[in-house]
Write the structure tokens for this entry.
Amino acid sequence: MRRLSQADRDSVEAEIVAGAKATWGYYALLVGACGVATLGLLQSSAAVVIGAMLISPLMGPILGMGLALALVKPNDFRRAAIALALGAILSVLAGAVIVWISPIAEATPEILARTRPTLLDLAVAVMSGLVAAFVTLTRRGGVIAGVAIATALMPPLAVTGYGLASGDLGIAGGSFLLFMTNVVAILGCVFVVARAYGFRPARRKRARWEEIVLASAFLLLALPLGFSLRDIAVEARQSLRAKAAIQRAFAPDTARVEDVRVTIERGTLSKVRAVVITDRFVAGLPGKLQAALGRQVSVDVQQILTADAELARADRSALANDALAGKQAMEATPETRLRTLLEDAATVDSVRDEGGMLVATIKLKGEGGLTDYRTLETVVARLMPQAQVRLVPPPRPLDPIPFASGRSELDPAGQQAVEAAAWALQRWGIREVRVTGLADSRRARPSTGERRVALARGQSVAAALAQLGITVSDVTGMVEPAGRNAAPWRAVIQPAPAAKAE
């Protein structure tokens, strides 16, 4: 690579140093660019956001920092860094103020796209930084507009302001990490290109500490960005896995899986939430999905029932249309409508009207837990908004509350089980229970710590039940020999001896 002459280097340095100064014009451009970026993000308008990238002056201080580092000029570096820091703070504050006064404050796709930077973003920033350094140092301004768009310095700061204004520190932190990624990448590229073109300190032939500092900064950035890329990849794989498991639980061509969302904790799947549009309710769906995905996974799948499949085909003949009309006439009363909705999923023992509320005693067809009964009630209530509906499951032992090995606090699966138990107790009219926390031990005589874990599990369940309106009369802990039970890490809820159904 041909080095620039001393005269060219002096001229380029003077231009970059001048562009790195903090002036009133610099701050005015920042406020304008941030305003355009914030409004574009709130409207999810890519064109407006691109316009903000073009007018943002933040590239000037970053170029100044990179060149000052290459020339080892601490004073120039400090002035450019101060200009960048003040500009970033002003941009974040301007973005936050605009979000505060804006009637639209929803997190749009343009905002969310800048909250989870990865190594891919670092790669984009490096390539953009190389081009930016090259066109600046060689004065080839023909592609400078494209460079401004590619480096994208202003939108992440606007998203940081949005995150602070909305109180979402996750959004604020992720977008600021993206901004710092761009800054460090561009600064490093300017340093490398400047050294290649002959910008070196006059009294040294080789660089020392500045290269170590840059390499360390890149490494510190690469670690969280690498973890973020890994998490996104894991999330994508688990989302496909969860969607496939849900589809297998339904008969072919009877359901459409919508809006699958997964939660990853410590690299493993912990929660699945989805909406399924189906013409036939599937009992025991959470249990089937946990068998496929893992017992530790909390499952929340909303089944939205469409028109009955047979009735949907009824318009193929006049006779079928008559049958459909007859059935619709039968469904004139809420009670008949409720029985019709439940007939495919459950056996209806009775339906009674209690002060305007329809109370149906049912039993699911096939296997199903209390969570399935609760889900079915939610689905029916959605399909009958004009009536209040309560489904009562048959009396049965409450499902054990699961805990992670060695833990005493409720995880999402445990919380879901507690909520299902409280729902069933309320349907049965039972308001008072006792809770036993269980743990296992490989010792002949359980240790004090094992007893404490067992009791703490019972107390965690009792506290959760109390918040749901269930009175807990007694909480105990019990330690069992290891291997006696298939799931020793759990708690058990039982009606209190004096409790009677209302």
Residues 308-326 have pLDDT under 50 and may be disordered.
